[in-house]
Design brief:
The complex is a heterotrimer of chains A (about 375), B (about 240) and C (about 375). By secondary structure, chain A is α/β, with parallel strands linked by helices. Chain A has two domains: about 1-40 and about 170-365, no CATH class; about 45-145, abc type-2 transporter like fold, CATH 3.40.1710.10. Helix content of chain A is about 70%, strand content about 10%. In chain A, α2 (about 20-40) runs parallel beside α9, α7 (about 170-200) packs antiparallel against α11 and α10 (about 250-275) packs antiparallel against α13 (about 320-335). Chain B is of the alpha/beta class and about 240 residues long. Chain B is built from nine helices and ten strands. In chain B, a hairpin with a 2-residue loop joins β9 (about 205-210) and β10. In chain B, α8 (about 220-230) crosses α9 (about 235-240). Chain C has two domains: about 1-40 and about 175-365, no CATH class; about 45-150, abc type-2 transporter like domain (abc type-2 transporter like fold, 3-Layer(aba) Sandwich). Classes of the chains: A alpha/beta (about 375), B alpha/beta (about 240), C alpha/beta (about 375). β4 of chain A pairs parallel with β5 of chain C.
């Protein structure tokens, strides 16, 4: 036991004495937290707008004013002719041009309807759609207030309730996924690298020749990162709750249990990868490619799995993060329980068992 | 053929790393055409000194000239006139013999015709002509060392600096290496070599022995053996080190 | 000058002999263009929807039919209760639910207006807005249709302003057109910074850099020798990636190719110099990789590749002025999708050029032949 503790202590020294490892362990998670919490958002703001008013009547001016004071748009240009439009878009000066037809108010009063043309820069298609939606919504509420005495218009009226994330805060979407990404980084990638480092330096053979049993060596390598992972996950969770107001509606205990399960899974993955590589660089390259990239792009962290082409959806379903992120979102944001997430949990358990099985077999073969 | 014309002059050379004094007030001269051995135990400061003279490291203080150029202010001129072989003998392992020669020859500004002629001569002397297109990494250690030395003097520098050039090879290969050194000296190249093999000290014209950053002995091997009443340089060293 | 030629000769020989290098140069563009671009999409393929009809009238059934007839929706019907809907939402089986209340038909007939309720799983705000927007468009169009049939109520009261949208440069709202230029930037950045930069640290680790430092090679020659081959490779991969994008999903190429590659060259000089600078302050490949990795993550996320820069908080936008990827992603999108010319992107060109020259100078300055 003493031997094991001595080995464990050496591992901790390795970690805390190397500034570059610290960058990865602390710098990256903190940076990502900042970025995904504050910076990465699809919120509509500061949209550069141009208004072309061929009518210049009271109504068109009031609607223009409405748009500009909504807080979403800023007036960036008033083009004098249509030939200017293209260069305004091309230089990025405007993202949307609103054009009022001549005799705007006249049409509206006499015929009951008028039109505004909205040209959007669809090189960013999502943003363009959102901008158009906002423009339409502002226009509709303008009409409602001016003419309908705030009564609902005829036809089918929609009352919408945004569930689980009323204010559509991006942090709600990202934080659960971020936990998955960070855990994969620390538990899997760093574990793979540290075991590979021992192999690369040849000290692994020395360890194997020592009285330490192989299982103790593996545990010794893995336990520090397990502890660091638990700490990181808790920190991200705490910051998510305190700073970004991401709730944990469901059972906290269940959430922690699932996090521990995922950490375990990631650790086994890290060990498995280390059995395939000889050098730190390979460990880094393979982990980066096979673990991190899918964790970020194929897991539903940023982009919904449903939107991907079917072959990619199949690949995504083979990856652990996709299942874990869904668990997180369901438990944290929807208040779901085991009833809702048991299939995911089963998948994660199955994958862990598989990885351990393969690792043990490979390790036994090596020893022979 | 030794002359009394100094090609390296070192006055009061000091090199400190923080508070640690690696070279403590070194004073010596190296004459044109001689084989100057720079001996000492590991950690005595030999590599530090040689790197300063090659322009790889900047000294803390002192007045040093190499090939007539000042070590502080004219390092690039020095580099045009010297050759160097480091402990790791750094040729490119993933390039062939030919490609390494072509690169270093070109970098030292050799004309193509001259380079080709010297290459042929060199490979013939080393009996490596058949291996011209082999990667350095595929060659055995002894061949690599001899090749590294020959490439270091290909551009006919005035002085060649060798830092522990014969590590890890058998005595016969070492002997062959030293034959190459003699041939270089005959062509007028001065050789500055560090080593911790005391028997190699016998091959030098003069040796200096460093300990703890200072030079504790500087003379011909014969005179040193006489002075310390020793049968060989090993004994001289042991007696000094006590 | 001849020295530079010999250096380049050696560098290229080493690159092409490196067995690991060639697959990266050829496989990475393929993977990035074919897998990443297809994975990174916010375009909705289908929307999973549940309908609870408490009215069960001809009107409500007609509305339901209108929706189920739309190929975009995958609809679960015949749900008895809102509890079932909640359960489906909790188990992540549906994105939206439409609840038609009991008096739907009566309200429509009598007062010409009726309410329906839509419940949206809003965890992913973008997906929620897009799917909700789509459904409300469908309902809105249907609503207009039945109004026309049943006759207009008090004409004086009814007023509407129609918003007619036109989408320029990408009328199909194809998300790949948006992502691909950005991913191309990431591609050549990774090649430039990692491959190019690592190269120098490798020489440090092996010790061959000492042999270089002892020769009369000038500092700028050495740095340029490390930079130019990867400039060539980077430009090659830019072209290769662009070709794949063209063949795989017909990416628009509106603007001038010489302009694109000219900008690409300036950008590559910048990121390569950055990678080399990092190498001059690192001792091992591992150190350099970690620092680079960290930097790249921050730069990529903030570049506007995934989320618009205009949406970012002001302090983040200011930081972006120092982010090379921000400028080049903008340039790539502008030239490829909008056909922007040199005047249009002049500001970005100026910024990149200044950075490139400074970074190149910095790398040369920091590299010391005498330590």
């Amino acid at each position: 036991m003493n031997r094991f503790l001595a080995f464990l202590r050496k591992e901790f020294y390795h970690i805390f004495r190397d500034p570059r490892t610290l960058i990865i362990l602390f710098g990256i998670p903190i940076a990502q937290l900042m970025l995904f919490g504050y910076v990465m958002t699809n919120e509509v703001r500061n949209v550069k707008l141009a208004i072309v008013d061929h009518s210049k009547d009271d109504l068109s001016k009031r609607l223009s004013q409405r748009l500009l004071s909504s807080g979403f748009f800023q007036l960036a240009a008033i083009p004098s002719s249509e030939s200017d439009y293209e260069s305004l878009f091309r230089s990025g000066t405007v993202k949307e041009i609103v054009v009022f037809e001549p005799d705007f108010a006249l049409h509206l009063m006499k015929e009951g309807k008028a039109a505004i043309q909205v040209i959007a820069d669809a090189s960013e298609p999502n943003a363009a759609q959102l901008i158009v939606n906002y423009t339409t919504a502002i226009t509709n509420s303008f009409v409602k207030e001016e003419f309908m005495k705030n009564q609902s218009p005829p036809g089918i009226n929609i009352k919408v309730r945004m569930l689980f994330n009323e204010n559509m805060r991006d942090a709600y979407n990202f934080i659960p996924g971020l936990i998955a990404v960070i855990l994969m980084l620390i538990s899997a990638m760093m574990t793979a690298i540290t075991i590979a480092r021992e192999k690369e330096m040849g000290t692994m053979e020395i360890l194997l020749a020592s009285p330490l049993k192989p299982i103790q060596i593996i545990l010794g390598k893995v336990v520090p990162y397990m502890i660091l992972s638990i700490v990181s996950a808790l920190v991200v969770l705490a910051l998510g709750m305190l700073v970004f107001n991401v709730p944990v509606i469901g059972s906290f205990a269940l959430l922690l249990a699932e996090i521990l399960l995922y950490i375990f899974l990631a650790l086994t993955l890290g060990i498995l990868i280390s059995t395939f590589v000889d050098s730190q660089l390979s460990a880094m390259a393979i982990s980066g490619f096979v673990l991190m990239l899918p964790s970020i792009l194929l897991s539903g962290f940023i982009f919904p799995v449903k939107n991907m082409p079917i072959p990619l959806q199949i690949v995504a379903n083979l990856m652990p993060p996709r299942w874990f992120i869904e668990i997180n979102r369901t438990v944290m944001l929807k208040g779901g329980g085991l009833n809702e997430i048991w299939p995911n949990t089963l998948v994660l358990l199955g994958m862990s068992a598989l990885f351990i099985f393969i690792s043990i077999r490979k390790f036994k073969i090596r020893l022979q | 053929m030794i002359t009394k014309e100094p090609v390296i002059t070192v006055k009061n050379m000091v090199k400190k790393f923080g508070n640690f004094v690696a070279n403590d007030n070194l004073n010596f001269e190296v004459y044109k055409g001689e084989i100057f051995g720079f001996l000492g135990a590991n950690g005595a400061g030999k590599t530090t000194a040689i790197r300063i003279l090659c322009g790889l490291s900047s000294p803390t203080s002192g007045q040093m000239t190499v090939a007539g150029f000042d070590v502080f202010r004219q390092t690039e001129k020095i580099k045009q006139n010297i050759g160097y072989m480091s402990q790791k003998f750094s040729l490119y392992e993933d390039l062939t013999v030919y490609e390494n020669i072509r690169f270093y020859g070109g970098v030292y500004g050799m004309k193509i015709a001259e380079r080709k002629a010297k290459t042929a001569e060199m490979l013939d002397r080393l009996e490596l002509t058949a291996y011209e297109n082999r990667k350095i990494g595929d060659l055995p250690l002894g061949w690599k060392q001899k090749l590294a030395f020959s490439i270091a003097i290909l551009h006919s520098p005035k002085i060649v600096f060798l830092d522990e050039p014969t590590g890890g090879v058998d005595p016969i290969t070492r002997r062959q290496f030293w034959n190459l050194i003699y041939e270089a000296v005959e062509k007028g190249i001065t050789v500055f070599v560090t080593t911790h093999y005391m028997d190699e000290a016998e091959y030098c014209d003069r040796v200096s022995i460093m300990a703890d950053g200072k030079i504790v002995a500087l003379d011909t091997p014969e005179k040193l053996k006489e002075q310390y009443n020793a049968a060989n340089m090993d004994e001289v060293f042991l007696k000094i080190a006590r | 000058m001849r020295t530079l030629f010999y250096i380049l000769q050696k560098e290229f020989a080493q690159i092409f002999r490196n067995k690991g290098m060639l697959p990266v140069i050829f496989v990475m563009p393929l993977v990035q263009m074919l897998i990443l671009v297809f994975a990174a999409t916010n375009e909705l393929r289908q929307v999973d929807l549940a309908i609870v009809d408490f009215d069960n009238s001809s009107s409500s059934r007609k509305l339901t039919a209108e929706i189920t007839g739309n190929p975009f929706f995958v609809v679960r019907q015949n749900l008895a209760d809102t509890k079932d809907v909640e359960d489906l939402l909790m188990r992540n089986k549906i994105d939206l639910a439409l609840v038609i209340p009991q008096n739907f038909d009566k309200d429509l007939t009598l007062s010409k207006k009726a309410d329906v309720q839509i419940l949206v799983d809003a965890i992913n705000g973008m997906a929620a807005q897009l799917s909700f927007g789509y459904l409300s468009n469908v309902i809105g169009n249907y609503s207009q249709k039945i109004l026309v049939k049943t006759g207009k109520p008090e004409a004086g009261l009814m007023k509407s302003i129609e918003v007619k949208p036109t989408y320029w440069f990408n009328p199909q709202l194809n998300f790949k057109y948006y992502m691909a230029p950005g991913i191309l930037v990431v591609l050549i950045t990774v090649i430039g910074v990692l491959l190019g930069g690592m190269n120098l640290v490798r020489e440090k680790e092996l010790g061959t850099i000492e042999q270089i430092n002892v020769t009369p090679i000038k500092k700028w020659q050495f740095i340029a020798g490390k930079l130019l081959p990867f400039l060539a490779i980077g430009l090659f991969d830019l072209a290769f990636g662009l070709l794949i994008a063209r063949l795989a999903f017909n990416i628009p190429i509106q603007g001038s190719m010489p302009l694109l590659f000219g900008m690409g060259s300036i950008y590559l000089v910048l990121v390569l110099s950055l990678g080399l600078f990092i190498s001059t302050i690192s001792d091992t490949v591992q150190q350099a990789t970690f620092v680079t990795f960290f930097m790249l993550i921050v730069f990529i996320l903030m570049s506007g590749l995934f989320t618009p820069v205009e949406s970012m908080p002001d302090w983040a936008q200011k930081l972006d002025y120092a982010n090379p990827l921000y400028y080049f992603v903008k340039i790539m999108r502008s030239i490829l999708l909008k056909g922007s010319n040199f005047t249009d992107i002049f500001n970005e060109f100026a910024a990149l050029s200044i950075f490139a020259v400074s970074m190149f100078g910095l790398a040369i300055f920091r590299y010391k032949k005498t330590s």
